[in-house]
Amino acid sequence: MAKKRAAAGWKGxxxxxxxxxxxxxxxxxxxxxxxVPIGTVLFVLTSMEIVLHFLPVSSGVRAVTVTSxxxxxxxxxxxxxxxxxxxxMHNINRGHINNAGFVxxxxxHRDDPLSLLAVVGDSYIEARMVPFADTVQGRLSRxxxxxxxxxxxxxxxxxxxxxxxxxxxxxxAYGASTLVINIVGNDFDESLITYKAMPGFWHYAPDELGExxxxxxxxxxxxxxxxxxxxxxxxxxxxxLKLHEVMNVWIxxxxxxxxxxxxxxxxxxxxxxxxxxxxxxxxxFFRDLPGMxxxxxxxxxxxxxxxxxxxAAQAGRGTYFDLMRRAxxxxxxxxxxxxxxxxxxxxxxxxxxxxRFEFPDDGHWSGIGHGVAAEAVASSQTLTKLQ
Length: 387
What we know:
By secondary structure, the protein is an alpha/beta fold. The chain has a single domain, classed as Rossmann fold (3-Layer(aba) Sandwich). The chain contains 12 helices and 11 strands. Helix 4 runs parallel beside helix 8 (272-293) and helix 8 (272-293) packs parallel to helix 10 (320-334). The radius of gyration is 29 Å and the shape is globular.
């Protein structure tokens, strides 16, 4: 009997174990169905990371922390960078960030006895897409070799308000005696903090009396951004594909809203509010420039980008950039500053040779455009004292 009961108990235990085994099997199946997709995604991402590591993905130039204690925007010093454009990583250029944290093949020295010409601007002067030797500052460095140093202070996205900070820095830190400041289409409205607030840059904001005053938008890159900078896949998505910009347009733009028309590489819309606000920026800029640099008008030269081609200049009449160009020219020349309207160089050059001054899919100056601008600067009255 005991044996029968034991056998029955054993058989019963086997019977009760079956549901538990089935439940375990179901959990294993669920776990498997959950882990396999995750593992597949991780494998694909890891493979892409490895492959992209060996391809010319843009490296970025890595801005440092900018605060009231460290108020001058620049990049991480003493490192090489690689620039490429688009999903297929074309227009490859390799460059150097110097000891001062700017895109320049030469180091900057505070105690050099040679006079200093400082070139200030945004992405046109930063020119990470152009070999340094072909840039305005690279060409001027060769022209003035042994007679003057040529340092550049620039970064993509910088507006007119930020140029003041670099101009002041060039004079105070390195003893610049001559400034060349390049002006482009989006320099005016983007100087206003209400239109754009770029981390690390100084923008104009109204004070309690409504007067425009410079205000710093601090830049404190966190560990997530630092980690992303090390990932070739993350850089490819952000810098080459610019997926974040596409998503912003897709998410925040109304489907029925027409795309803006551009003229002079900025929105052509010349509504009164935008134009009046931009005119106030021009006034504030020329109010602050002498006090911040201590330089007289004859030591400051402006180069003013234009429409570059006769048909574009014709189509651009009355647009925002057309009005701002005219306002800037009038104000600067009225105060005694020399301004080179680069359309006076670009348009005749194009009519003679048919050459283009920018890349096929990038509105920035190519080496040809930089060459035209450099020749214009070299022949200016402001630079005759350095020749």
